[in-house]
Amino acid sequence: MKKCKAFLFFLILLSFVWLATSLGMAKSPRHILLLSSYHPGYNWSKQIVPGVLSVLGDEIDLVIEYMGSERKTGNLHYQKLYELYQHNFEDTQFDVIIATDNEALEFLFHYRDLLFPGTPVVFCGVNNYEDGLLKDYSLYTGVAENIDIKGTLNAALTIQPNTQHVLVLVDRSTRTGQIIRSLLDETIHQFEDRLIFNVLETNDFATVFGCITALPENSIVLLMNPYLELSGSLIPIQRSTDMITHYSTIPVFSMWDSFLGYGIVGGIFADGFSEGKAAANMALSILQGKPVEDLPVITMSINSLIFDYNQLERLNISLNRLPEGSLIINKPVPFYVQYRKWVWATILILSFFIITIFFLVLGIRTKSRAEALIRQNEDRLKIALEVSNTVLWDWDIINGNLTFIDNDMERTIQYDDWEKSIHPEDREQIINNIKMHLLGYSDDYRAEFRILSKSAQWQWIFAAGKVVDYDSQNVPVRMTGIQLDITERKLLERKVLEVSRNERRKIGQDLHDGLGQDLTGIAFLAKALEKKLLSKSAQEVGDISTISSLVKQAILKTKNLARGLCPNDSESENLPFILEKLLSMTSETFGVEYSFKWNQSVLVADNLVITQLYYIAQEALHNSIQHGKATNVSISLYSSNGKVILEIRDNGIGIPSDAQEGLGLQSMKYRAELIGAQLNIKKGADEGTIVSCIFNN
């Protein structure tokens, strides 16, 4: 048990040690030395360093040293640098060294093991790399730079096919220059049959400029020396290149983009940024624990065929003559390409405004047509209202304002005052009709009633309206409609009824006094003839007896018809009397049972109302017997809630649907409307039909 506890304690302790070591290692920075062959202002250095920095993060401590080999080179220079670095980095241990160009690599071949023993080296920008270059050295890998002299010459001959002379500017004072010269010698042999080469190995600017200006027109310059001197002073690359090309019409080509943009036409250029980026990625892999032996040297050239548009224009070289796949710098960007976003933004904005203006114009034209149509309709409506004597009304239900518009005259009153102007006999029914519509029980409001006019006379009007606006709670807030004076129509209707009544009375009198008397005379003659035949015992006595019976029936029907058409004036003034008499005649004529109930408190004095109620009851009884096949009929006259009710009941089978649209029922409804009554027809609870006429007395 004690051994187990000791073992567990040892494991926990070991875990803490490992964790502390891991945290310490994670926090300790990694150190990389970037050793550049040339000075910081050299354009090649300006490309490689950003490429390296684009990969390495802030957790890497990057130290950059520039050897300045463009000014000094050789063993003595290397010795001085060794002594300097030995002093500067005495207490510094680098995890990886990145060397740029041949000078830095050559220096490390001599002094890496003395200054930084066992430190991996990643190189880039090294020219003329061969597989056997690293056979005597360990922990070396990198990116080989293979400048394409042959490709550049072929590109130059493509755009300048008449070229015969080539002036090559090269510097053999540096290790890189010596390697480039050996590559140049190999390339010259491949073009000896068609080109004359003049290789100029000098740094003196005056000599170089004199040779260039003396070249014939069918010549080109291959610039392979980045550094020139004037009066013993080094000229910056950009200025020396510009001085060479500015005063000469001879095309200048190169393989280093350090010269690009300063007067050379173009060439196949190494990409310093890409090489620096590739070298930094290899360095990171080493820091992450990958063995150097597992990182082979990248020998694929990272080169691009690039030309300067400004120099092509200056030398009148057509873009069509450039090799396929060429990149062009300084080419003017077309307006659309340069400002494409702004162009599209402008187009979209203009399109928006055009569409907006189009719809505005369309809307204005549509509005104008609509306004013209509205004016036309208003004129038509105005004429129609004037001709028909129609009044428009608008009721603000919330505020109670009721506005009437009559022939451009407008007046507003309170709704309560308008209610008071309604005839007392019509007021309750009209108020109820309006309430029913406001509650949604009817599609619209229609009514005929009497109202007090401005001249203090009762005026019959027809009113119709509808709710046109609701609030958020679906409560009516506005109602509008029309009002029409129908006083003349009502007077005409009364005249028509009076004429009809007179005509009925005349027809009834004619039937009673004319046809009735004739039939009575025939009845007497038939009776006398029957007695004579009876005394003689003639066989025709039976026939004459039948004739006499038929004549009596005809006389009875004629009297009933005459009474129905024209009750006696004294009788017509007593509604209960003529109603009970109507039931008696109906029973006598059709053999049906009847009953009559009358509340003696109900008195109707208006002859027009009495006449119309009589004919309504007469038509109802006729329908009960003729269509309903009733055997028992009854009439009730009573009052309820201030209303007089005439009710006709039967025990028949009901009125067929086709009979409900007949002339008889339409006549009953019409007569009810004439006296301002409400006519209801419904089926009885058990059997038969109930016809009720409700009116104000």
Automatic annotation (TrEMBL):
<dbReference type="GO" id="GO:0046983">
    <property type="term" value="F:protein dimerization activity"/>
</dbReference>
<feature type="transmembrane region" description="Helical">
    <location>
        <begin position="342"/>
        <end position="364"/>
    </location>
</feature>
<dbReference type="Pfam" id="PF02518">
    <property type="entry name" value="HATPase_c"/>
</dbReference>
<dbReference type="GO" id="GO:0005886">
    <property type="term" value="C:plasma membrane"/>
</dbReference>
<dbReference type="InterPro" id="IPR003594">
    <property type="entry name" value="HATPase_dom"/>
</dbReference>
<dbReference type="InterPro" id="IPR011712">
    <property type="entry name" value="Sig_transdc_His_kin_sub3_dim/P"/>
</dbReference>
<dbReference type="InterPro" id="IPR000014">
    <property type="entry name" value="PAS"/>
</dbReference>
<dbReference type="Pfam" id="PF07730">
    <property type="entry name" value="HisKA_3"/>
</dbReference>
<feature type="domain" description="PAC">
    <location>
        <begin position="445"/>
        <end position="498"/>
    </location>
</feature>
<keyword id="KW-0418">Kinase</keyword>
<dbReference type="InterPro" id="IPR050482">
    <property type="entry name" value="Sensor_HK_TwoCompSys"/>
</dbReference>
<dbReference type="Pfam" id="PF08447">
    <property type="entry name" value="PAS_3"/>
</dbReference>
<keyword id="KW-0812">Transmembrane</keyword>
<protein>
    <submittedName>
        <fullName>Oxygen sensor histidine kinase NreB</fullName>
        <ecNumber>2.7.13.3</ecNumber>
    </submittedName>
</protein>
<dbReference type="InterPro" id="IPR000700">
    <property type="entry name" value="PAS-assoc_C"/>
</dbReference>
<keyword id="KW-0808">Transferase</keyword>
<dbReference type="InterPro" id="IPR007487">
    <property type="entry name" value="ABC_transpt-TYRBP-like"/>
</dbReference>
<keyword id="KW-1133">Transmembrane helix</keyword>
<keyword id="KW-0472">Membrane</keyword>
<dbReference type="InterPro" id="IPR035965">
    <property type="entry name" value="PAS-like_dom_sf"/>
</dbReference>
<dbReference type="GO" id="GO:0000155">
    <property type="term" value="F:phosphorelay sensor kinase activity"/>
</dbReference>
<dbReference type="InterPro" id="IPR013655">
    <property type="entry name" value="PAS_fold_3"/>
</dbReference>
<dbReference type="InterPro" id="IPR036890">
    <property type="entry name" value="HATPase_C_sf"/>
</dbReference>
<dbReference type="Pfam" id="PF04392">
    <property type="entry name" value="ABC_sub_bind"/>
</dbReference>
<keyword id="KW-0902">Two-component regulatory system</keyword>
<keyword id="KW-1003">Cell membrane</keyword>
